[in-house]
Write a structure and sequence with these properties.
about 300 residues; mainly alpha; elongated; single chain
């Protein structure tokens, strides 16, 4: 992950943002994500099975359940690492925006980071709930667990290939024809599942960041030379540089709380996904052993 330069880090710490998350500074939020990312491999591989059809009719119940758990674990790895590596890229964009004094880049990347947390949190809740339901099923009734695991595997598969356009023909005439079961969830609907004490703040942060990303008032503030504005009569001087101290203050005010929240919460939810992965590995070993006894019998 990229680092803030010492000068930029000092500049950021010299400014008191209008709002923070748990009193964290931007360098501290960045460090939380960086420290976690350092513990993970530079390159990761996921090897799921795209077509389980040929084995469905020839495997015993326990063998099939072990295979489904192994496949779900691989799709979960796909989801986990795609989230982790995207979070690193978005955080790098925030860092480069500050380092290169291209401050308009900062809220755009922070908004993407916040959306990534919301999407990941919603998916984790669904994965965890399904996992808990499957764990409650008696081990002696693998058929019910198989039915539940197939549904969860399909959900995990959607997290890998869900989209808003048809990626079979993204530049052609059928780009809008997304298959219904692959349509991606709108991030605004995901916000509703946040705990009440977080929901209001996150909705406001998202609105602030959206105004800075879209052709709205927030984004206009980044192209004004604030030091040469006059009120009476009004005179607006525009700048392409976006490097003034007021632009830095604006960028920090806009992203400080949302950026730190996103970094910290992404790390939290990624750690929870690691626990689900561990459960899958245990399940593969357990039902793989049962499949061996099933075959011997």
């Amino acid at each position: 992950m990229r680092e803030l330069t010492p000068t930029v880090s000092r500049d950021i710490l010299s400014i008191n943002p209008k709002e923070t998350f748990d009193g964290l500074t931007i360098p501290q939020g960045l460090a939380a994500l960086r420290d976690y990312a350092k513990e993970q491999p530079e390159e990761a591989t996921s090897r799921p099975t795209l077509n389980l059809g040929p084995v469905l009719s020839v495997s015993g119940d326990y063998a099939l359940l072990a295979l489904l758990l192994r496949d779900s674990a691989e799709w979960l790895k796909f989801f986990y690492y795609s989230v982790l590596y995207r979070s690193i890229l978005h955080a790098d964009e925030v860092v480069s925006g500050f380092n290169e004094r291209a401050f308009v880049r900062v809220p755009v990347a922070t908004r993407a980071l916040l959306e990534l947390f919301l999407y990941t949190f919603a998916a984790y809740r669904r994965i965890y709930q399904s996992q808990q339901e499957i764990k409650k099923l008696p081990p002696a009734q693998p058929r019910r667990a198989i039915e539940s695991e197939i549904k969860l595997r399909d959900f995990l598969l959607k997290q890998a290939v869900g989209a808003r356009i048809n990626w079979d023909d993204p530049f052609g005439s059928t780009w809008q024809e997304v298959r219904e079961h692959l349509k991606q969830t709108n991030v605004l609907s995901v916000m509703r599942i946040l705990p009440g004490d977080q929901r209001d703040r996150v909705e406001r942060w998202y609105a602030l960041l959206s105004d800075a990303c879209h052709p709205n008032f927030g984004s206009t503030l980044f192209v004004l030379d604030h030091e040469r504005l006059t009120v009476d009569p009004p005179s607006f001087v525009f700048t392409r540089s976006r490097t003034g101290p007021i632009h830095l203050q604006l960028a920090i005010d806009l992203v400080s709380a949302a950026f730190c929240f996103s970094c910290v919460q992404l790390v939290n939810v990624l750690k929870l996904l690691e626990k689900v992965l561990a459960y899958y590995r245990e399940g593969v070993a357990l039902f793989g052993a049962k499949a061996g006894h099933e075959q011997d019998a």
